Amino acid sequence: MRPAEQIYSNYTTDDFKVWELLYTRQINFIEDKVAFEFLESLETVGFTSDRIPNFKEVNNTLSKYTGWQIITVPKLAPADVFFNHLSEKRFTATCWLRTLDQIDYLEEPDMFHDVFAHTPLLSNKEYTDFFQKIGQRALQVIHEPKKLTMLQRLYWFTIEFGLIRSSEETKIYGAGIISSKGEAEYSLSNEPTKLNYDVAKIMNHSFRTDIIQDTYYVIDSFEQLSKSFDQIDNHLFN
């Protein structure tokens, strides 16, 4: 059974090896591809290759910057639970790590995805403003499947698979790309379609979770995301 809370003393030598291998390999690969905001946030939360993040320490840091917290769950949280936590500045994360023989492929996200890829930007105020508002709006439409799907698409093409313009270059900020070597390389190549951030298009754009994406949306800044909620509300409530 997977743990529902982090007991730091339970991590094994192999767990530390897995974290170090994943962290070192991925940061070396994405360092020149990822948004500078992510690299700054990574330093803010104090992640390193030689130490699995301690959630209590991470939460102490996040509370100083944005008031966000990470809470542990044994598996993917249902939509209503997930969005309720987002609305209250809480991000649900697993605390278990894949094994050495799963190092290159894992069907269900482990803490490397949840913590390495998602958590650093929880120290960024503009990013988390958008994140929290998604949770708040989702609770308002939680019993309206069509509208909830529209918000899930918005989450998918921003928080998970978003790109950002930075110094006339396109960079990665989506956690689903940050934690995937293959997707990171492909997303910045000339092969996929890259579109400007467009609320209407995104909310009507279906996606698949079992393939590398063929279309990405590019934002100009995290401020652009938080300021787009007039448009988002217009599509949801009018």
Task: Walk me through the structure.
The protein has helices spanning 13-30, 36-45, 55-65, 79-87, 111-118, 125-140, 145-160, 175-178, 181-187, 199-203, 222-226, 229-237; strands spanning 69-72, 90-93, 163-166, 169-172, 193-196, 215-219. The N and C termini lie far apart (45 Å). α4 (79-87) crosses α6 and α6 runs antiparallel to α7. The longest helix has 18 residues, at 13-30. It has 238 residues and is α/β, with parallel strands linked by helices. It has one domain: Aromatic amino acid hydroxylase (Phenylalanine Hydroxylase). It has a four-stranded mixed beta sheet. It contains twelve helices and six strands.
Using brief descriptors, characterize the structure shown.
11% strand; 238 residues; 6 strands; four-stranded mixed sheet; globular; Phenylalanine Hydroxylase; alpha/beta
Report a brief summary of the structure.
The chain is of the alpha/beta class and 238 residues long. The protein has helices spanning 13-30, 36-45, 55-65, 79-87, 111-118, 125-140, 145-160, 175-178, 181-187, 199-203, 222-226, 229-237, and strands spanning 69-72, 90-93, 163-166, 169-172, 193-196, 215-219.
Which structural class should the secondary elements be placed in? alpha/beta
User: The CATH topology is what?
Assistant: Phenylalanine Hydroxylase
Overall strand count: 6
Strand content: 5-15%
CATH H-level superfamily: Aromatic amino acid hydroxylase
Please describe the biggest sheet, giving its number of strands, its sense, and whether it closes into a barrel: 4 strands, mixed
Task: State the share of residues found in helices, binned by percent.
Answer: 40-55%
Biggest sheet, spatial arrangement of strands = 4-3-6-5
CATH class: Mainly Alpha
Order of helices and strands: HHHEHEHHHEEHHEHEHH
Identify the CATH architecture: Orthogonal Bundle
Low-confidence stretches: none
Rg over CA atoms, rounded to whole Å, is 17 Å
Instruction: Tell me the distance between the termini.
Output: 45 Å
Outline type: globular
Count of alpha/pi helices: 12
